């Protein structure tokens, strides 16, 4: 199969993300039907499914040779036989969407050979569109962005759920971070790319659709991105999960890895 055209694929993702935002806007703050997924997998709304259907139809019709992995589509492991796949989260931050917060996002990525080659994270209610290709800059609404150059853990502005600072994850006392939180992992990674925060940490097993697009944006903005074991992430895996994720300013990334307890690799 011919290698994907990163620029053309990015343009396609941007168009699809904006269309997803139009759909989301019709449901946001309009009491969409909501229910809980099985096995405690969190909430889903009719907006998630409407956007997923649109993205599947639009993206797969444009690139019929690409595989498909989405939070809201039953996984078809035939994607494992494809060199290039779409990995999408129709709404990342569904709880924020339900609660009327504008910080949910649409996260769309193209992955080839396990690496993200094009990614978009779009927050339609804030009109913030983060984008990157594997060979180009990371941008916010078309303007280049740059990650932080922080090097000290003490006082570093870190996006992380409170549980990630529990002593069990650290060799000594948990670092004295200035902790912040956003509901969408894709948005957290994009904010690292923007330089608004110094690091993002999650030690939980992490679904690929939550982080594929954002990881490329953070990386192309100059951050170092790895799973929680310190290994550069690879996508379109059989389990569709990564062993956590750390994205940070280069020197700070090394300091975080050095302070954290060894994290079990994905099985």
How would you sum up this structure, described in words?
The chain is an alpha+beta fold and 267 residues long. It has 2 domains: 139 residues, Fructose-1,6-Bisphosphatase, subunit A, domain 1 (Fructose-1,6-Bisphosphatase, Chain A, domain 1, 2-Layer Sandwich), CATH 3.30.540.10; 103 residues, D-Maltodextrin-Binding Protein, domain 2. The chain contains 6 helices and 16 strands. A 7-stranded mixed beta sheet has the order 3-4-5-6-7-8-9, sandwiched between helices. It has a 5-stranded mixed beta sheet with strand order 11-10-12-16-14, with helices on both faces. A hairpin with a 2-residue loop joins β5 and β6. It starts with 5 loop residues before the first helix and ends in an 8-residue tail after the last helix. The mean pLDDT is 95.
Give me the secondary-structure topology.
Blueprint: H1 6-27, E1 34-36, E2 43-45, H2 46-62, E3 67-70, E4 84-92, H3 94-98, E5 105-112, E6 115-123, E7 128-133, E8 139-140, E9 143-144, E10 157-159, E11 178-180, H4 185-194, E12 199-202, E13 206-207, H5 208-220, E14 224-226, E15 241-242, E16 245-248, H6 250-259
Q: What is the CATH architecture descriptor of the largest domain?
A: 2-Layer Sandwich
Strand content: 25-35%
Through-space gap between termini: 29 Å
Q: How many domain units?
A: 2
* Main beta-sheet strand count, sense and barrel state: 7 strands, mixed
Query: From the structure provided, what is the oligomeric state, counting identical versus distinct chains?
Result: single chain
CATH fold descriptor of the largest domain: Fructose-1,6-Bisphosphatase, Chain A, domain 1
- The strands making up the biggest β-sheet line up spatially as 3-4-5-6-7-8-9
Instruction: Report the CATH C-level class of the largest domain.
Output: Alpha Beta
Task: Report the uncertain regions.
Answer: none
Q: Number of helical segments? A: 6
Question: Can you identify the CATH superfamily of the largest domain?
Answer: Fructose-1,6-Bisphosphatase, subunit A, domain 1
Report the helical percentage.
Answer: 25-40%
- Which class of secondary structure composition applies to the elements? alpha+beta
The helix-strand sequence is HEEHEEHEEEEEEEHEEHEEEH
Number of strands: 16
Radius of gyration: 17 Å
Give the integer mean of the pLDDT values: 95
Morphology: globular
Binding site for Mg(2+): 71, 89, 91-92, 210
Cofactor: Mg(2+)
EC number: 3.1.3.25
Keywords: Hydrolase, Magnesium, Metal-binding
